Amino acid sequence: MPRYHVRNRRLPLRDQGLLELASDDFGTQALLGELVGEPTNPGDRPVWTVPFAQPNAFLALINSLQHRATERDRQALRCRIAYEDETGIDPSPYPEDSSSEAAENDGWLPIGFLFAGVGRDRLADLILNRRFTSHMQPIVRTDGTPVGYEFLLRPLPEQSPFRPAELFDAARESGLHSFLDREARQSAIRLASNHLPAGIKKFINFLPSSLYRPSSCLEDTFRSIKDYGMRPEDFVFEVVETERLDNRRHLLDVFEAYRKEGVRLAMDDVGEQFATLDAMEALRPDYVKLDRKWVTDCHRDPGKMRHIDEVQNRAARFHGVLLAEGVENEGEWRYLSRAGIPLLQGYYFGRPSPVPLPAAVRS
Questions:
Q1: What's the pLDDT tens digit per position in 138-156?
Q2: Residues 94/10, Cβ–Cβ less than 8 Å
């Protein structure tokens, strides 16, 4: 018996499944016939069935539909996405989120949720045609010597501008965050292979919620690292700050999948939103990133100093390496250096750039 995709911003679309399309509108049916072919279930209420085994095939169809569909088509078109019922496989890392309008309608949903976009750009088109790149920002020791670079998603120069947070938010709403997250990782890996030598750390953000089965979902990532001749131990994957961290079992499985391949892990923006100190101690990341909220003017704020000391003391219990983000002036740099924070990142040392620029050396 199949399982149907549930519309929920924490549940990603899978790479393999069956897309069903239906409409009672004759004009929309004609569009489906043109783009998909003959219906699988003809009759008074025809249904078009499109199996997909690769994300690009799914994205290409959604992109074509979104490009061609009129507002009337969008209102009339329904979809249902089915997956094989895999015995013993948890259908979701967040089973408490699995109730929705899809369950009430036998899996059928208005197709509009898949037609996500940012500005005038279609999300499916952005992902399918890789209309983005990564910029690199240096991560340095206290004297400004680079030890690594963080890869930050950016639009291509010839493309319409977008804010990365806005792009990922749209992807979550449509369930396409697994596809976007994978392509963002691949973009960073390709760029790293062209610009950064062995021994330099490559920090790459990722969404744990996009990895419904960590080992299989990360196969392409690990294969790319090896195919480009790079060392897994030079990569550090960061849990982004917008991800909820309440399913510890799933997160531990994600961390284990990375660590089995020799990759290091980081928690981004510790002290903010979901990245609590308790979550940090439970997950025991290799790198602990201090949010800029605690770094800005830390040399003048005793409360921030106490918080930094607390994070440092608790991270020391599992040998986590602290990295302070958002360092923007000499006062912050000097205080963090005296406090024993070994790694720093921020405009004071270098801005994100399409190529790895030398960091500013401080003494």
A1: 999 999 999 999 999 999 9
A2: yes
Per-residue pLDDT band for 201 (boundaries 50, 70, 90) equals very high
Domain range for 133 is 121-345
Q: Count how many Cα atoms sit within 13 Å of the Cα of residue 341 in the half-sphere of its side chain.
A: 32
CATH label of the domain that carries residue 231: 3.20.20.450
Residue 5 CA to chain centroid, in angstroms? 19
pLDDT exceeds cutoff 80 at 243: no
User: Is there a single domain that holds both residue 178 and residue 317?
Assistant: yes
Across 29-55, b (16+ Cβ under 10 Å) vs e yields bebbeebbeebeeeeeebbbebebeeb
Centre a 10 Å sphere on the Cβ of residue 302 and count the other Cβ atoms it contains: 8
pLDDT level of residue 76 (50, 70, 90 thresholds):
very high
Domain assignment present for 354: no
Residue 25 contacts residue 113 (beta carbons within 8 Å): no
pTM for the structure as a whole: 0.90
- pLDDT of 88 reads 42
> Which stretches of 250-311 are assigned E, i.e. beta strand?
264-270, 287-290
Please name the helix (run of DSSP H) or strand (run of DSSP E) that holds residue 167, with its range, or none. Answer: helix 164-174
Structure tokens at 355: 């190529």
Choose among 66, 89, 70: nearest CA to 27. Answer: 70
**CA neighbours closer than 13 Å in the CB half-sphere of residue 67:** 12
